[in-house]
Each structure stands twice: as structure tokens, then as C-alpha cells.
Write a structure and sequence with these properties.
Bound molecules: zinc ion
Strand content: 25-35%
Number of helices: 2
Number of strands: 4
Order of helices and strands: EEHHEE
Helix content: 25-40%
Distance between the termini: 63 Å
Length: 105
């Protein structure tokens, strides 16, 4: 913390990742929130170097399709001190969806 500066400059992620969604409010007109989740940023950093141009589809499969279709996704949200009225997603909680119940006879 008080030692020397990092040896390498930190990489800036060249994208703002956003989620568009509707909440449970019956009058919801939709939300669009920036997501600063650490794991999502690391996925970008790792897959963009491993997959080349294919990183974007793999990224969307993981952070869009899986979050909608396979996971019961919840957001941890917060605000920034400079923008106390602007909410952002700071993390995700995404347990797998329960398998649908079967009818028992
Ligand atoms: Zn809403």
C-alpha cells in the first residue's frame, strides 16, 4: 500500500459491460446498469488473449445466455461516492436454477 509503484501499468478494460433487464416491479420500464464485477473483467482479460476474435461469443455465452437460461441470477448493486444516485452492479450471485419439478403419481 505504501511501498513502491507497480512494476507494470494496470490494463484498462476497453469496454463498459452493461446489463439491460426488467425488475419485479409491475410498472418497471427496464433498467440498464454498468457491471464492474471482478470475475467478468477477468474473463474478458483471459479469454480475449486465449480465444482471439472468438472471445466475444464465448463471453456472451457465459455472461448473457448462461445468466438468463441456466442461472438464478441476482445482482449486488451499489453507488459511487461521486455519483450517489447512479446505481451500478458490483457483483453477481448466480446459483444454478433448480430443475423443474416432476409430477409424481
Ligand atoms: Zn424496474
Amino acid at each position: 500500500m505504501f511501498g513502491s509503484l507497480p512494476k507494470e501499468e494496470l490494463e484498462k478494460i476497453p469496454f463498459k459491460f452493461m446489463y439491460d433487464f426488467h425488475c419485479d416491479d409491475s410498472g418497471c420500464q427496464g433498467h440498464s446498469m454498468m457491471c464492474t464485477d471482478w470475475e467478468m473483467a477477468e474473463t474478458y482479460r483471459k479469454w480475449s488473449s486465449e480465444y482471439g476474435d472468438g472471445w466475444k461469443q464465448a463471453f456472451l455465452d457465459r455472461w448473457e445466455s448462461e445468466m438468463i437460461n441456466l442461472n438464478d441470477t441476482h445482482f449486488y448493486v451499489g453507488t459511487l461516492s461521486d455519483h450517489p444516485k447512479a446505481w451500478i452492479i458490483v457483483g453477481l450471485f448466480f446459483p444454478r436454477k433448480e430443475p423443474q419439478a416432476r409430477l409424481l403419481w
